[in-house]
Write a structure and sequence with these properties.
CATH class of the largest domain: Alpha Beta
Strand content: 15-25%
Strand order of the largest sheet: 2-1-3-4-5
Number of domains: 2
CATH architecture of the largest domain: 3-Layer(aba) Sandwich
Order of helices and strands: EHEHEHEHEHEEEEHEHHEE
Distance between the termini: 54 Å
Shape: globular
Number of helices: 8
């Protein structure tokens, strides 16, 4: 009997200049079945990314030689769809918003629970797997736009934009509730896992970005419904 082929392990690029924390995370993630490569600075991490295939990148923001934000931008040039999770010792909103603007899928502020980090990683990977469900629908018509959930592509005529994982997930739920209210807490707990203040601010950033993407069609609008959530308005 021919043995079944073993499924390749999910590979994680971990860039963390705190050696003790980095080794702890590497050991923990490997023990949980991931194949994790630890890099102690941004430049080494960038070289590693160019050499190997990874399924997700976990980047410390404050690193020597090349910081996490710069590294993320360079990774995005190579692979626009690469899931990125930031680790930051800063709790200032400006730092969080900068990471989200770059297109990060998630972030965690130090100190954090290593178990929660694992949950965040698993949530991101579930969202990025093509075989994961799209609530029975993979494409949506939004005014003059076509939105492909699986490919994470928003298309208007000859112009196409590849969305980040969180942008795609949020737009999907807006589409599923088109012309009805998408409950704010539901979106937070479904996409961001919890409804903390920083996650709520994160979602507001993504709503702003989606509004900008859809602004070329005056018949499409995302409005705030005070005290409830958001509503995607479209006649088609």
């Amino acid at each position: 009997m021919i043995p079944a082929m073993e499924k390749p392990k999910t590979r994680i690029l971990l860039a963390e200049d705190d050696e003790n924390l980095g080794l702890l995370l590497e050991e923990y993630l490997n023990a949980k079945g991931y194949e994790t490569d630890l890099f102690m600075d941004g430049e080494k991490a960038y070289k590693g990314f160019n050499t190997n295939h990874y399924d997700i990148c976990i980047l410390d923001v404050m690193m020597p030689i090349k910081d996490g934000f710069t590294l993320a931008k360079e990774i995005r040039i190579i692979n626009k769809n690469m899931p990125i999770l930031f680790l930051t010792a800063k709790s200032m909103k400006e730092d969080v918003l900068e990471g989200l603007t770059i297109g990060a899928d998630d972030y965690m502020t130090k100190p954090f629970s290593i178990e929660e980090l694992l949950l965040r990683i698993e949530a991101i990977l579930r969202r990025t797997q093509k075989e994961s469900g799209s609530d029975g629908q993979e494409t949506f018509k939004i005014g003059s736009f076509e939105f492909d959930v699986t490919k994470q592509m928003l298309t208007q005529g000859d112009n196409s934009r590849r969305l980040t994982t969180k942008e795609s997930e949020l737009l999907k739920y807006l589409c599923l509730n088109k012309n009805a209210v998408l409950d704010r807490n539901f979106a937070l707990k479904t996409i961001w896992i919890d409804d903390s203040y920083f996650n709520a601010r994160s979602m507001d950033v993504y709503i702003t970005k989606l509004r900008k993407y859809l602004s070329s069609d005056p018949e499409v609008e995302i409005i705030n419904v005070r005290g409830k959530g958001f509503k995607l308005i479209s006649n088609t």
